[in-house]
Write a structure and sequence with these properties.
The chain is mainly β. 4% of the residues lie in helices and 56% in strands.
Length: 558
């Protein structure tokens, strides 16, 4: 295994997630430290479809740790609109690339999308990226009991700045700062909060890191980060609790020979709280690995060792092993048995739903096993399959607690209490992609999940009703003529129904379509429709999605 600076970073969403960029700049970082910081994960906005390689090289599949991406935002707005690559990478060697990007869209329900970004190359080794975004809506929705309507609003504003300096030895120094503000209101008639129209979530952070630097057979990298989260008017019955996180990572590696290497990841995570009912804690994660790379197979063998002090005194160890074999250039067989900690931070809760509350402090989740056995293959040009299945087992898995409220439905608590529960999951996944040149593209992501919970005080209908059993995400794209593109998308999520449940989440059925045209001078105009079947499903738990809605706008690179 060699240690290289990752020159091209993954495409980011409208929310800045630069903490990932600090540690994800080298292949070694993912192998050294398997601690997952879900709060930094956002769904990416796909670049211009004619720039997407839908027939990727056959590579190792990453095991889904059970944190499902839910259909909580309109899909797939801007999926086929050109995105400036500089916003996703820092490549000062690319000359003549567009450095600026701006987008504005508006639709019914007062849907608003606005983004602006600009990259500045000070020198061939120094780059500054600036991003700003706002999206939201303000319209009339059905109330929880569907007997009345109410005025609902939600606005999400974010801004960020990232500086990168490349050293002569290809390692990079990365500094970023980011801030995000969510302003919204609860449904009326709730007895849980007063006022119900001034809810605010604020989050931000600063990160400094160095991507792995090679000297001889050795490699070293790491970084420091600070994240903060606060809520306002979450609940009148309990004090609002703010969270601050200080985190540090150290990545060490040594190349034994051309085929073998060893590495070590050390992660320290300190969380502090303003609520006197919550206890500060410090956690440590150590991840040693042995790596073997051959022409037809690869092996990673290691451990995830997790310990915490303060709020709890937990100690867990999980395997971190993966093996892949390539019988041909177009086929890969793989097996994984991994694990590791997932921090149950306020940022993670908020990424699941902004309508959340945490009455009681919860321990961090530790996945004792995340396993998968699968095959990737490309039987024909442009056709790609990834089929796998596996079993997961977790301690303190984060759950949304569905209310046991026995009073009038119109006065039910209208946020989700966060709890943890030991649990497991058996899953079967099938991803299929097909692309014909830059003219036609299909993708089908299919997930089947069997969830269970055990060893806790929560009934299954209380903690599993929000998790999808069937999860489908299908997309199609066609380039009609040069510059003119049409796309279709369909998302479906079905949830298990319980006879004794206070609330059964309705099935998500979301059909979307969009049409865009890009002029030769880099201006794109678009119109997009969402929930075209006018289905009744939840945007977030307890909060209904918009009915048929449209948004139109323009985007330009400069």
């Amino acid at each position: 295994m060699t240690f290289k600076t990752k020159e091209k970073m993954s495409i980011k969403s409208k929310h800045i997630s630069a903490a990932i960029a600090i540690m994800a700049a080298a292949n070694v970082s993912a192998q050294m430290n398997n601690v997952i910081e879900v709060e930094n994960e956002y769904a990416p906005i796909v670049a211009d479809a004619n720039k997407i390689n839908v027939l990727p090289d056959v590579e190792e599949t990453k095991v889904n740790p059970g944190n499902i991406e839910y259909a909580t935002t309109p899909q797939p707005v801007r999926k086929y609109i050109f995105q400036p690559m500089w916003a996703a990478q820092s490549d000062a060697t690319v000359k003549g690339a567009k450095k600026g990007f701006a987008e504005l869209g508006y639709g019914n329900y007062n849907n608003l999308i606005g983004r602006a970004a600009y990259g500045i190359d000070f020198t061939t080794d120094d780059q500054l990226d600036i991003n700003f975004g706002i999206n939201g809506f303000n319209g009339t929705f059905d109330n929880f009991d569907q007997t009345s309507e109410w005025k609902r609003r939600f606005y999400d504003t974010s801004a960020g700045i990232k500086y990168e300096h490349r050293f002569s030895h290809t390692s990079s120094l990365i500094v970023d700062a980011h801030y995000r503000n969510q302003s919204f209101n609860y449904q009326p008639y709730s007895i849980a909060c007063d006022p119900t129209d001034k809810q605010v979530n604020r989050m931000g952070g600063i990160n400094v890191g160095v991507t792995p630097y090679n000297f001889g057979a050795f490699s070293i990298g790491g970084g420091l980060g600070f994240e903060a989260f606060s809520q306002a008017h979450a609940n009148y019955a309990s004090d609002n609790c703010d969270e601050t996180i200080i985190k540090a990572k150290l990545l060490l590696g040594y190349q034994l020979n051309d085929d073998m290497s060893i590495d070590l990841g050390i992660d320290v995570h300190n969380a502090g709280y303003t609520n006197e009912d919550f206890t500060d804690y410090t956690s440590f994660n150590i991840a040693p690995h042995f790596n073997l790379e051959k022409e037809k197979f690869s092996l990673k063998a290691g451990l995830q060792i997790y310990a915490t002090s303060g709020f709890s005194s937990d100690f867990y160890i999980s395997p971190d092993v993966s093996f892949a074999y390539m019988p041909s250039k177009k086929t890969k067989l793989y097996v994984k048995a991994e694990g590791g900690a997932i921090y149950n931070s306020f940022l993670r809760y908020n990424a699941t739903t902004p309508y959340w509350l945490n009455y009681n402090q919860e321990k961090n989740q530790f996945d004792q096993l995340r396993s998968a056995v699968g095959i990737k293959f490309t039987p024909a040009k442009g056709l790609y399959f990834d089929i796998n299945g596996g079993f997961d087992m977790s301690k303190n898995r984060m759950e949304l607690c569905l209310s046991n409220w026995a009073g009038p439905v119109s006065q039910a608590p209208l946020y989700n209490d966060i709890v943890t529960s030991d649990g497991s999951r058996f899953h079967i996944n099938a991803d299929i992609k097909y692309r014909y040149k830059d003219i036609f593209e299909l993708s089908f992501a299919n997930r089947l999940n069997f969830w269970s919970t055990e060893g806790n005080n929560y009934a299954e209908e209380v903690v599993l009703g929000w998790r999808p059993v069937i999860d489908l995400d299908w997309n199609a794209y066609v380039r009609i003529v040069e510059g003119l593109r049409f796309g279709l998308s369909y998302q479906c999520q079905s949830f298990k129904e319980y006879d004794d449940a206070y609330y059964n989440r309705p099935t998500t059925n979301n059909l979307g379509a969009e049409l865009s045209y890009t002029f030769p001078f880099n201006l794109t105009i678009f119109v997009k429709g969402d929930n075209l079947l006018n289905q009744d499903y939840d945007h977030y738990m307890y909060y209904k999605a918009e009915g048929i809605n449209f948004i139109g706008g323009a985007a330009i690179t400069f």
